[in-house]
Amino acid sequence: MAEFTLSLTGLHARNESTIQATQDWERGRIDSGTLNAAFRSDSDSLVALQKEAGADYLSDGQFTTGWQDFLRPLTNGLEGVKKGAMVRWYNTNTFYYTQIITGPLSGNGNAFWSKVERRFLKQGKFRVSIPDPLTLSELAEDHHYGSREKLLFAYADVLNKELLTLEKNGVSYVQFSSPALVARFTQKAISKDGLGQLGEAVRSAVKGVSLRTGFHTIFGDASHYIPDIFDAIHTDDIGFDFTQTDPDSLSPTKKGIIAGVADARTTYLESVEELKGNVEKVLDRTGTKKITLAPSSDLRYVPRVSADAKLRRLGELKRELGEK
Amino acid sequence: MSKSFPTQEIGSLPKFSWRTKPFRQMTLDDSDLETAKRWGERMGVTGTSRLLKILSKRADFSDEEKKEIVDFSLLYAIRMSETAGRGLSEHEGLDLVWSGEQARTEMYETPVSNIAGFEFIGKVRSFDNKYWRMASIRGSPSFENNYHIDELLFTQKHTKRKVKVPVTDAITIMAWSDNHYYTAKWAREKVSPVRRSFNARREFTLELAKIIRKVIRELIASGVEEVQIDIPAATQYQSVDDIKLVTEAFNETTKGLSATFSMHSCFPPSIGYAILFPHMLEMKKCERFSFEYGNRDGYGRGIDDEARSGFTDLKLFKEYGYDKGLGVGILHVHTDKLPSVAVVRDRILYSAKVTGLDPEELYINPDCGLRTRKPEVAQRMLDLVAAGAEKARGESAGH
Question: What fold characterizes domain A3-16+54-322?
Answer without folding.
Answer: TIM Barrel (3.20.20)
